[in-house]
Write a structure and sequence with these properties.
This protein is 5% helix and 45% strand. It is globular, with a radius of gyration of 20 Å.
């Protein structure tokens, strides 16, 4: 089990993260409880499918105001509940992930992919997964130091798409690479939506299982990422990512 907690105080923006009014500073505290039933399989194990669960509670409360204004009551929100399954077979060469978002306000398909290690330093992943734009966004919210993703990720952060990716992540070496071919349309409405928001265009959540549909405007998108990691006493790294949409849509994606 894993426990994480963090806090943030809103100041001076007058708007909350969803664009609504925020008249007073607020304190947000959250906990993420992670249960991964038993983890790594041995090389001599047969195919194993294990259940996984990640959940997050968020408590929101306003500070008392000197002017005597009445504060809204504190609110406790079950913000994320993500059950899933994890596959491990062929001595770890074949893996897979299936994750749902089943919070009270949503029912979504988050991740659905399989991955095969074709050879040393070559892993092939197929399915719905995050685009490899930054190492930060490729991680889980349960590993964040604060209660949520950075404020810039809804606008510029990579989001899940349908695609094929070749990479070497998870090997622990100093060098990391990734190349991918994607459908070109985000399948979730949470991140990577900056251009559409700028032009006031709606972003359809194609992963909503209450009205699931494959993206209607499929067009190829290419990604490439390289990174170098220093894993000494002080760990740090450098990374560079590139994304090219071969048929960018007006008012939804950057166009030359």
């Amino acid at each position: 089990a894993c426990f994480t907690a963090g806090g943030a105080r809103g100041v001076g923006t007058g708007r909350d993260a969803r664009g609504g009014p925020m008249a007073r500073p607020a304190l947000f505290a959250a906990t993420a409880l992670t249960l991964l039933l038993p983890r790594a399989a041995r090389a001599d194990d047969g195919p194993v499918v294990r259940p996984t669960l990640v959940a997050q509670l968020r408590l929101s409360a306003d500070f008392p105001q000197a002017d005597g204004a009445v504060n809204p009551p504190a609110a406790l929100e079950l913000r994320r509940v993500r059950p899933g399954l994890r596959l491990n077979a062929l001595g770890g060469r074949l893996t897979g992930v299936f994750v749902l978002n089943t919070s009270p306000s949503a029912l979504e398909l988050m991740d659905l992919w399989v991955e095969y290690q074709a050879r040393t330093h070559v892993r092939v992943r197929v399915g719905q997964t995050k685009q490899p734009i930054t190492g930060y966004r490729l991680g889980s919210f349960a590993d964040l130091h604060f209660v949520d993703w950075a404020l810039v990720t809804p606008t510029f952060g990579g989001e899940r798409q349908l695609g094929v990716e070749v990479h070497n992540r998870g090997e622990g070496g100093p060098w990391e690479y990734s190349v991918g071919l994607w459908n070109g349309v985000t399948v979730r409405a949470a991140h990577g939506r900056g251009v559409a928001d700028l032009y006031g265009q709606p972003v359809v959540n194609a992963s909503d299982l209450r009205a699931y549909a494959l993206p209607s405007a499929l067009h190829p998108e290419l990604t490439a990422r390289g990174a170098w990691h220093h894993r000494g006493r002080v760990q740090w790294g450098l990374g560079l990512s590139a994304l090219v949409d071969l048929e960018p849509a007006a008012q939804r994606e950057f166009r030359a």
